[in-house]
Amino acid sequence: MSNIKTIASYFDNLAAHWPEDEKDACIRDRIIQRACLSPGNSILDIGCGKGVMVPHLLKTAPKEIIELDVSKEMIRLGRERFSLPQITHICGDIFTVPLLSIDAAVVFNAYPHLMDKQALAKRLHRLLNDQGIVIIAHSKGKEFINAIHHDDGLCEQISIPLKTPLKEFEFFSSFFSLEDWQDTPDLYYMKLIKKNSTL
Length: 199
Ligand SMILES: C[S@@+](CC[C@H](N)C(=O)[O-])C[C@H]1O[C@@H](n2cnc3c(N)ncnc32)[C@H](O)[C@@H]1O
Description:
The structure is a single chain. This protein has a single domain, classed as Rossmann fold (3-Layer(aba) Sandwich). The chain has eight helices and seven strands. The chain has helices spanning 4-15, 25-35, 54-58, 72-81, 117-127, 142-148, 154-158, 165-172, and strands at residues 42-46, 64-69, 87-91, 102-108, 128-138, 176-184, 187-194. Strands 3-2-1-4-5-7-6 form a seven-stranded mixed beta sheet, sandwiched between helices. Helix 3 links the parallel strand 1 and strand 2. The longest helix has 12 residues, at 4-15. It is globular. S-adenosylmethionine (SAM) binds at residues 4, 7, 11, 46-49, 52, 68-71, 74, 93-95, 108-110, 113-114. S-adenosylmethionine is lined by residues 4, 7, 11, 46-49, 52, 68-71, 74, 93-95, 108-110, 113-114.
């Protein structure tokens, strides 16, 4: 379903000029505060780009942050930007890259590119510790996101339009409960909590 090479090369080409989005820093802060991540967590930042979430995740006093992106250019620039002992940068595909267990996964401005939602739900369930948290968020509403992901073909190959949080939750409901959500023009937000692995 997903065309991972096309996605990686698309974002490799954009990486050098990928915006820092300073104006959205307070929305990112709100997202991470609302997630209520405990100190000492291992956090996986999926589709991290150049690390726009890192300063916000650091405020939760994590044990470690794993910055994961399939674009090697994004990872190279992120590594240059944030070289701290508690941060690991990995270039890889969330669906296949070997990873150890984690307490929380954050998918910020990247969910539409993770094309196989059912596989994503299973993969995150496997990776997360019991009661593990998944945050799926955008610093804009779904109408805006869906409008920028629409062109004469390439965007359709590398992204899937966002549905409402309740619709997206259908992919996750066997493995997670939906703890909190928002779908307004300024914020798209879902907080999922892993159900017990004895399912
Ligand atoms: C729209 S960018 C957002 C980057 C960053 N989160 C930000 O807000 O600046 C989406 C990122 O997801 C990454 N990505 C897409 N599919 C991925 C996958 N299967 N595994 C890991 N990263 C992926 C892309 O390479 C890209 O850097």
